[in-house]
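Cross-check.
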Amino acid sequence: MPAAGRRARIPARRRVLESVLNVAYHGDWPARLWHRVAGTAAVSVSRHRLARPQRSTRPGRLAFISDLHIGPTTPLPLLDRAFDIIRRAEPDVLLLGGDYIFLEATPARLDVLWRLVSSVSAPAKIAVLGNHDLWTDDRAIVETLTDAGATVLVNQAVTLPDPWHDVVVVGLDDPWTGRCDAAAAFAQTNGEAVRIVLCHGPDGLHSSAAFDFNLFLCGHTHGGHVATPWGPLFMPAGNLCRQYPGGFARLNGADVYVSRGIGGVEVPFRTWAPPDVLLIDI
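Predicted model, tokenized:
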């Protein structure tokens, strides 16, 4: 399946909403307004460790970030803060979980995406696409990610470069808007000791549960975006989003991590769902 040129049919109600938001949010004023609120550039950092059988090889560090939503509701300083955290961590691998652009993939937004991803000097950068990417010019997004040094996976697997050749990343297509095919992706693995699944949303667990993996990484939920101390008020489409709203969980003996992402969509503000990045030591 090609990575680019698959622009999906956007649902009618969603198309109307985005047309209204394109007009109402002209000039990106919601992001600038939200940035004036104290603490809105704060990003939480989660950490995780993965054991490898080959302990004699050099340890590695992976950074995972998702749901940038570059657009009118995401302050640029928030994005810069998130990527500054990643750069300071000096990861060997950058993992990108999709939904890079909100609304249209304009040249200005694509420039921001290129600047952020290319600013991380990791030897390997691996990305998957999200539903918002497939609702806009996904070809331009894939080209931008590629120019920034990232490999975009669509139901494919890629082994990490030496000395982490015993670690494979299985990249799945978006389970809602794309065609998630875990069987096709896992068929490309070759007995690697550590398997990391990268997918945009938790619903990728439906097809991945039949296969052995060590860590499943996704985003999409935003942790509810507008949540309460007792849980999220809203959730995006996806059968497993409420079961896996954010943070760590377990499935069949494997770890699952659902990122709250970074950016905003319909509204710029968040409550009890702070943006996050994940650092993984292997």
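The mean pLDDT is 94. The chain has eight helices and 14 strands. Passed to J.P. for a second look.
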